[in-house]
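Complex 144.
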Amino acid sequence: MKNILIVYHSHTGNTEAMAKAVSEGASASGAQVTLKKAADANDADLLGCDVVAIGTPNNFSYMAGMVKDFFDRAWPTVRDKMADKPYAVFGSYGGGGTVAIETVEKICDNMHMKRICESVSAQRQPSAENLNECKELGKKLAEM
Ligand SMILES: Cc1cc2nc3c(=O)[nH]c(=O)nc-3n(C[C@H](O)[C@H](O)[C@H](O)COP(=O)(O)O)c2cc1C
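Predicted structure with flavin mononucleotide bound:
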């Protein structure tokens, strides 16, 4: 059984709704899911999972400060231990598109993690279609 970590931050609930849909998709496919806010997650969570999904809103064209803080805290311990770990990124934005998601991907790519699919993004509140994409993403994570 795959052990999947979903880490996210959300100010107004949009990325959180996406995180819950990713979790639902992964659980429905038989994975063991840990859903954590970035403020509550740490290096041990990253090291202990088989697959990770990271969710962030676009805040000033960057990942949310709490997601950056998560990486700042975890990175010294995990930086050389994440190679080939599968990951995917998702998140919500206002009008600026996927630029914040790309800042997360840059960090994961820098640790030589394995991006398993295109990110899933939603403009503000995720639509039913966006949430379905998130469920599909969860399914892909579980199948890794
Ligand atoms: C402090 C702040 C900064 C933001 N900066 C941007 C931005 O640069 N580009 C953008 O597209 N949206 C920006 N937004 C809009 C959010 O990305 C958008 O409302 C998103 O849906 C919030 O997701 P959440 O409910 O998960 O926090 C910003 C929102 C806040 C609160």
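The first helix runs from residue 14 to 28.
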